[in-house]
Amino acid sequence: MQTPVIEGVSAWADELTAIRRDIHAHPEMGMEEHRTAALVAAKLREWGVEVTEGVGKLGVVGTVKGTRPGQRAIGLRADMDALQIPEATGAPWASTNPGVMHACGHDGHTTMLLGAARWLAQNRDFAGTVHLIFQPAEEGRGGARAMLADGLFQRFPCDAVYGLHNKPTIAAGRFATRKGPTLAAADRFAVTFKGTGGHGGSTPHLATDVTIVQAHFVLALQTIIGRNVPALESAVLSVGSIAGGSPLSSNVMPAELVVTGTSRSYSPAVRELLERRIGELAQGLALAHGCTAEAVYRRGVSATVNHAEQTDVALAVAAGLVGEEAVNGAMVPVTGAEDFGLMLEACPGNFMFIGGGTGADGTSPNLHTPHFDFNDAIIPLGVAYWVGLVEQELGLQRQG
């Protein structure tokens, strides 16, 4: 698994690891990444990379131009934000920001792309332009949308865009991706049921009971999955909260109750179906019990749908690094979400997973858990993957 890039980057391994651990120790929530964005911009300038700051508020774009003639351009994207999770790793570089930690590896993603920026700035023997996209607020706070709204691909035109995410549930030294839908669209719903409320002990017969409505509604949600979504399609509906009444007044039937949850889907048709059927069930069940319902469906990020040509490029790069047997090109889609899907709607590209597992079974503590920590040993491999994409997309084989 040694390549000229990995061997070269290994000389910087200690420095890159220190950068990663510094970012890890100072996590910032989405659209609050002032320190991280400043660090990224400073490192890029130190290494001779052209820098544009403030793209989509806190996004940073580094631009490296090759020395060969060529008009093609590609984007390489990493995310910078952390999560509102108290850290329990016990690492010397653990979060110094109470209640916030890098539980998804964005500190590692940022570091790997910084390493690629340094390598490309020193090795410009390619044709065209590379835009290094450091995105804020991937974790549900609208970072990709903000950068796109700020003219990301108009200001930094790309013929293709690529993303890379660590995956601790597969062994280090492996890669995984697929063509087509890879991660799900993530939406939220909130249904407010209203009735008369009443005395649950003496006069329940005089009240309209929203708790009965919500009980039927929560069960009926799964009929959408079982009887409305086509059997060969995939979707998820889960309730996250039910709020109504007071534990201090257990004999009082609430007049209002709110149910919230999440929905996940891969196709636009299923997404529309979920939105419509949630509203229809809420209204119908409320009417049947003499109550009313107001359903609000908020669309979040789109499904991450990989493009065929760019996925072939990504698979070839990964296989060139670790061998075809260590690359899964037909991974099972994940119902987690990634706002990189919005970038793929605007520009063809691919989203790749790089293994980070270190345990005897090839796995490590999972993402979004208090015990997760990025595997620093994969930083050189991640850098080599980024550089490999540039060689594939902007090398001689792409010219003429």
What does this structure look like?
By secondary structure, this protein is α/β, with parallel strands linked by helices. The chain has 2 domains: 4-181 and 303-398, Aminopeptidase, CATH 3.40.630; 185-301, Alpha-Beta Plaits, CATH 3.30.70.360. It has helices spanning 4-10, 13-25, 34-46, 106-122, 143-149, 152-155, 210-228, 268-288, 308-322, 340-346, 379-394; strands spanning 50-55, 59-65, 68-79, 127-135, 160-171, 175-176, 180-183, 185-194, 198-199, 235-244, 252-253, 256-265, 292-301, 304-306, 327-328, 349-357. Helix 1 packs across helix 11 and helix 9 crosses helix 11. The protein is elongated and about 80 Å long. 48% of the residues are buried. The model is unreliable at 396-400 (pLDDT under 50).
Quick overview of this protein structure:
The protein has 400 residues and is of the alpha/beta class.
